[in-house]
Amino acid sequence: MLDEIDKGLIHALHLDGRAQFSRIASVLGVSTQTVARRYRRLRAEAGLRVVGLPDADRAGQARWLARLTASPHTAQDLAQALARRPDTSWVKLASGGTEIVAIVHAPDSAGHSLLLHDIPRTASITSVSAHYLLHTYLGGPSAWHGHVAALSEEQQRELTPSHTARPQPITEDDRALLSALGRDGRASHAELAGATGWSQSTVARRLAALRAARAIFFDVEISAGLLGASTAALLWMSITPSRLDAVASTLAQHEELAFVAATTGPTNLVAHALCRDPAALHHYLTRRLGSLDGIQTLETAPVLRTLKAASPITPPAGIPPARARLKPSS
User: Can you give the residue ranges of the HTH asnC-type domain (predicted)?
Assistant: First the structure.
């Protein structure tokens, strides 16, 4: 489990993923060396990662939530293959290990090759459904409440960076910068200059412009289990259309949820629940969720394993890039 300094550091990084350790230390009331040491320990022992991600709308990306079912002996291999692809995020094994859920990213003008070609040609997949993500109420720039419950309002004000309302579109020239930030959101200006071929001053100016316009945001990845949430589930809901916005906005305030989004399909709202244990999940479903008007149906799919969060992953040593492709049917 994490102590108060660890939780404060995670909360601070959600507010400003590139905040200097000295600034975080001042807000937390500890030394800079303590913050740096805690950050290194959390990276090494808890899988902490800070990643820079584009706002999907500014980047011209369409996002689909794909649900696949496969035979038990192939589902994990398929999920790992999906996780290694650069056009996926949030890859999870659910429902007894036979269901795979993944977010698929594609430019609005693309042909969606993963959905239209690669997945249908994979023999071991027994069913596929794809749900277009219409609107995200919780997730992306807005963090799970379990990650952001450590700092006071005054501390949060000290760490929250200022933004402007001036639009700042993401262009093709930003691809290398975004790729580097997706691997490490705290990469130095020198490291980002090496990845982009730009000068450090150009990197600093472009990064500042994108951040000020909220064209990019910084996410913090760490196991929810370390914050006391050992039970996870995906909730697929059918909401009365006239109540969809009200219900989704209410759910976005629930501390048990880390993701809430409106989708297309037979269910029009999906959420990701993180609870202390199965009893806490049952209490949430029957008391808090069950008391809301407008929820017509609810399907609960337990999450057994998360193979990929928002950021890219590095294929294990010895596995060539070609293994990242799904295996077609013969």
Answer: 2-43, 172-211
Q: What is the DSSP string of 228-289?
A: T--EEEEEEEEE-GGGHHHHHHHHTT-TTEEEEEEESSSS-EEEEEEESSHHHHHHIIIIII
Helix, coil or strand: residue 167: coil
3-state secondary structure of 163: coil
Residue 184 belongs to a domain = no
Q: Does 146 or 184 have the greater pLDDT score?
A: 184
pLDDT tens, 26-41? 999 999 999 999 999 9
Contact indicator for 137, 272 with CB cutoff of 8 Å: no
Q: Which of 144, 299, 167, 152 is nearest to 224 (CA)?
A: 144
Domain annotation covers residue 74? no
What is the pLDDT, as a whole number, of residue 112? 62
Query: Which position has the token pair 């949820």?
Result: 257
Nearest CA-CA partner of 66 in 320, 315, 308, 314: 308
Give me the pLDDT at residue 322, please: 36
* pTM, full prediction: 0.84
pLDDT one-digit tens code per residue, 45-68: 988 999 999 887 767 778 899 999
Q: Please, which residues have CB within 8 angstroms of residue 225's CB and are 6 or more apart in sequence?
A: none
Whole-number Å distance between alpha carbons of 203 and 174 = 10
**Domain with 264 in it:** 138-146+226-303
Higher pLDDT, 120 or 134: 134
Q: Which residue has the tokens 């629940």?
A: 273
The reply to whether 290 falls in a domain is yes
Give every CB contact of residue 20 below 8 A, 6+ residues apart in sequence.
Answer: none
